[in-house]
Amino acid sequence: MLHGIEHELDPGPVLAGNAYRDTTPTIPLNWPEAITAFERSEFARQCLGERFARLYALTRRGEMQDFNSHISTLEYSWYLTTV
To answer: What is the DSSP letter of 83?
Structure first.
């Protein structure tokens, strides 16, 4: 918000009604899309520095890969009964 105020950025139109129900999400809704959006963000590189932003995205991808490499109890049980 501070960046927007300091640079006098247009916040867009005022929302009327239920913002949770009546609007389309403008932020990524899953981990891979969020990381990709961060990597493409000029704002992140300017605020955090090119090196930090690159390393941060790299470590988040590593965390995501680690997370995805684990088999949950539900997945294990499901595959035992269907194979």
So the answer is: -
Place of tokens 């704002």: 43
> Which CA distances in Å does 31 have to 28, 46, 52?
8, 22, 19
Q: Is 38 exposed, middle or buried (0-12, 13-18, 19+ CB in 10 A)?
A: middle
pLDDT in tens, 29-50: 899 999 999 999 999 999 999 9
Answering whether pTM is above 0.85, one says no
